[in-house]
Design goal:
Elements lengths: L25 H8 L2 E5 L2 E2 L3 E3 L6 E2 L1 H14 L5 E5 L5 H6 L5 E2 L7 H4 L2 E3 L4 E10 L14 E5 L4 H8 L4 E5 L2 H9 L5 E5 H8 L5 E4 L5 E4 L2 E3 L3 H16 L2 H9 L16
Parallel strand pairs: 1-5, 1-6, 9-10, 9-11
Antiparallel strand pairs: 2-3, 3-4, 6-14, 7-14, 8-11, 8-12, 8-13
Helix pairs in contact: 2-8
Length: 269
């Protein structure tokens, strides 16, 4: 519905001690299983990607997921990652295939009909990635051009409303978009600056350009009916903010974007 206030979430209660989850809570079920099951992807450089040397999955989203695991188990590594495409995130939560999705997932009113969200943990701005010498410097330059995006993302609709003549090509991962750009199969990629920065870091001949086309608020996706887990995750996010850990994570992964600040949560209760 259009009148939804997409960004409000549920206020965290008193946080339980790690390893002592409230009886019959969603967190107690996760604790009994022995691991937190997290949906993410491994093609979003800086947010969640596989380290080519160690094979570890790392990045800003991974740090968020590990903070949730640490709050349940007192161990950030009691975690199982399940790789999802952007288009699979909602179905994976609804089917119980994952406990949480931490995958550059923007909060929208449409998505809130299907899944619950934590408070935002990151605010991105949609921008454009293009070859440095391509003569593209603003959204107007995308008229009639071929633009790549990953399937199932919110940035496609926004781009179509701003530049109706752009020809959209979709792929399963953002890494595939970078390859298409490098091979000249598309003229640009458009999505959140944070994702684009991770692509730009891998290729000196491309750059992130233009003003913001709009904001995206990333949050942890959680299946409906698990309000206790929503409140718990919001408590984890508050701790990350208050302890200065969010800032450390930002500086570690995203400082290429300039200074960053944690979003301030708003709660409906």
């Amino acid at each position: 519905s259009t009148d939804c206030d997409a960004l409000v979430s549920l206020r965290p209660g008193t946080m339980p001690t790690p390893r002592k989850m409230p009886a019959r809570s969603t967190m107690a079920d996760i604790f009994a299983r022995g691991r937190l099951i997290v949906g993410l992807d491994i093609g979003s450089n800086l947010f969640s990607f596989r380290d080519t040397i160690t094979g570890d999955i790392k990045g800003f989203d991974v740090d968020v997921a590990q903070a949730i695991a640490r709050a349940i188990f007192n161990d950030p590594d009691q975690i199982e990652f399940r790789v999802l495409t952007s288009g699979e995130r909602i179905a994976a939560l609804q089917a119980g295939y994952v406990d949480v999705v931490v995958k550059t997932m923007s909060i929208t009113c449409d998505r809130r009909q299907d899944v619950a969200f934590s408070a935002p943990y990151y605010v991105a701005n949609q921008r454009i990635l293009a070859q440095r010498n391509a003569g593209i410097s603003d959204t107007d330059d995308l008229a009639g051009k071929r633009v790549c995006a990953a399937r199932g993302v919110t940035s496609i609709g926004r781009l179509q409303s701003i530049v109706p003549t752009a020809k959209i090509t979709t792929t399963s991962t953002w890494a595939d978009c970078l390859v298409m750009l490098q091979q000249g199969q598309v003229d640009a990629v458009s999505t959140d600056d944070a994702i684009l920065a991770g692509l730009a870091e891998q290729d000196p001949w491309v750059s992130v350009i233009g003003p913001s086309l709009g904001e995206e608020n990333y949050a942890v996706g959680i299946a409906k009916g698990h309000d206790d887990l929503v409140r718990f995750v919001n408590g984890v996010l508050e701790n990350l903010r208050d302890s200065g850990q969010w800032q450390q994570m930002y500086n570690r992964w995203l400082s290429i974007l300039g200074p960053g600040y944690p979003p301030v949560p708003r709660y409906e209760d």
